[in-house]
Design brief:
Length: 574
């Protein structure tokens, strides 16, 4: 320490009479020099990095120096072209070309994947032109993370080739004809497409699948809030594995595709000529990560023939996982015994929802936060997506009963409706409540059959109406909100018992959709042009053929037999 202080004192006295510009030029000249042996003292390297980040990039040399530093930070190699006009940042499976101009300006940034031609990246170019080097570095890190593949360069190349053939087959599956369930083609593609809404990789990002979107997000897109709603996504990548797995090294779907009686493609067997044993698996990288019940995680393992992610480190009750991962709720809020969630609804209506900690803490309702889903075959993906959608639907229903407003149960506050949520099985729950001044309890049994089918049964003393059960099921399926559904039940029962009914009509789709929007975003409003006023009915059958991208050569575009004959044909342009 004494030696360092002496050195700093000598430096200060030596350069005391120098101007600031001279000192900066000296620092730049020193930074441009490189040591021959390549060994760098860590504290000095950190100091150089901080100085480099602080200096303004106003020359070609400074820009190259900054790019080289970023490459080293992200584990990439770097070199200049013979003409010294292009800086290359390289990895085993991709590289970047940064085309430079005099003065350190950037003309273009191109990304090239293994075996492919370089493609310009406007987003990376914009970051460098704006000199947002930290954001550029993070983008590089994201790009590199998609190719964390074990083995030497030859093995990495083989695994990457397998990934490209998988992407080809996923696109073939997405182009197969299917039935249309939703009137909104975009929503139908996300929720009911065999592979969801598939978007090809661009600018260094992998193939992306949008597999679930909530009704509130759909309605926000139709509202005038200006917000952009995005559903749940999965990135298709590869990852290392302790065990070796047989991966395809060719397309497994013939041209034209042959389909079975359910409309799914017939895959060619994984023989030695079209597959290889490699230390990796394909991955669905979930964005955001999804809270999943352990029983659903086990089901994923059965779909993938035993290929499962590492055993979760932390297992918690599903309600706690939902609170921990919510963007709008505080994870510090307690959901256990003695606390009720106060859910405000439009027209000054308030419900309270209670979760019994002892019951929800049972093993059958414990789960984990899933970040990645490993698999080895394109045929696994449709079934995995259905399971992810099913879990997402359960999560959405439970989350609709949470709010940032919580009170002790004995706080003495009055509510329009008090409800207790209890689990029945891994896809069934019940809502116990009492309507108005009625001393008798009622129970709503909810079965989440799958992501687009809810089955409800209302149990009330001296009250049986099977048509009402069907109505409740359709309302819940449409809004995916327990509070909105309980509001509709309360009004419907009141109308059948000659009690004065509130002004709003619960059978009006516009009224219900407005309720959903205002419950999630109180300041939002729904345009009457965007939402049609129609009864809550199940959508009619249609036939859908995706034309998102050019169909593979000789692809089968004939409609498959549909067990529910459809009345119309819809062509989805997305």
């Amino acid at each position: 320490m004494k030696k360092t202080k002496t050195l700093m004192s000598d430096l200060k006295s030596r350069y005391a009479d120098k101007s600031w510009n001279e000192t900066v030029q000296l620092v730049r000249r020193c930074m441009e020099k490189t040591k021959g042996d390549g060994r760098v003292c860590e504290p000095i390297a950190q100091c150089l990095q901080k100085i480099n980040e602080a200096l303004n990039v106003s020359s070609l040399t400074a820009m190259v120096s900054r790019l080289e530093m970023i490459a080293k930070q992200r584990g990439l190699a770097s070199h200049m072209s013979p003409t010294e006009t292009v800086c290359y940042l390289t990895a085993d499976l991709f590289y970047l070309e940064v085309v430079l101009l005099p003065g350190g300006r950037v003309e273009d940034v191109r990304v090239a994947h293994h075996g492919e031609a370089p493609v310009s990246s406007p987003s990376l170019l914009q970051l460098l032109r704006m000199k947002k080097f930290q954001e550029f570095s993070l983008k590089l890190d994201d790009l590199a993370s998609f190719y964390i593949i074990p083995g030497d360069s030859d093995v990495k190349t083989k695994i990457y080739t397998c990934l490209r053939h998988l992407e080809t087959d996923l696109f073939k599956i997405s182009h197969l004809p299917r039935s249309l369930r939703e009137s909104d083609l975009h929503v139908d593609l996300i929720m009911n497409g065999r592979i969801g809404n598939v978007q090809p990789g661009k600018e260094g990002t992998p193939l992306t699948i949008e597999y679930y979107i909530s009704p509130s997000d759909v309605l926000i897109r139709l509202s005038n809030t200006g917000e952009v709603s995005v559903g749940q996504m999965a990135l298709v990548t590869v990852g290392s594995s302790d065990a070796s797995h047989t991966l395809q090294r060719a397309s497994l779907i013939s041209s034209p595709p042959q389909v079975d009686s359910f409309g799914f493609p017939v895959f060619q067997p994984l023989t030695e000529s079209c597959s290889e044993l490699l230390p990796a698996t394909f991955l669905l990288k979930l964005q955001p990560p999804l809270p999943m019940l352990m029983s659903f995680i086990e089901k994923m393992g059965k779909i993938t023939d035993g290929v499962i992610a590492e055993k979760p480190q932390q297992v918690e009750p599903l309600p706690q996982l939902l609170l921990n991962t919510s963007k709008t709720l505080s994870s510090k809020i307690s959901w256990t015994d003695g606390v009720q969630f106060v859910v405000p609804l439009p027209v000054s209506e308030y419900h309270s929802y209670v979760f019994s900690g002892a019951v929800w803490g049972r093993e059958s309702w414990k789960g984990a936060l899933i970040h990645t889903v490993p698999f080895t075959h394109p045929g696994h993906v449709p079934a995995l997506l259905d399971l992810l959608r099913h879990q997402s639907a359960i999560n959405l229903l439970l989350a609709s009963c949470f709010s940032n407003h919580s009170q002790l149960i004995d706080a003495g506050l009055l509510y329009d409706l008090r409800c207790e949520i209890l689990p029945e099985s891994d896809h069934c729950l019940s809502v116990t409540f009492s309507l108005d001044d009625n001393n008798h309890l009622a129970v709503l049994q909810v079965t989440v059959v799958d992501s687009h089918q809810m089955s409800c049964r209302l149990l009330m003393p001296d009250f049986v109406d099977h048509k009402l059960d069907d109505y409740i099921s359709r309302v819940l399926t449409r809004c995916m909100s327990i509070p909105i559904t309980m509001r509709a039940i309360r009004r419907k029962v009141a109308s059948q018992t000659t009690t004065p009914v509130p002004a709003a009509d619960p059978e009006s789709s516009a009224a219900m959709e407005s309720d959903i929007i205002r419950a999630v975003h109180p300041s939002a409003s729904v345009s009457h042009e965007a939402v049609e006023d129609e009864s809550v009915v199940s959508p009619s059958g249609h036939h859908l053929m995706s034309v998102a991208a050019p169909v593979a050569d000789n692809a089968n575009t004939d409609a498959v037999a549909n067990r529910s004959p459809c009345a119309s044909l819809a062509v989805c342009l997305h």
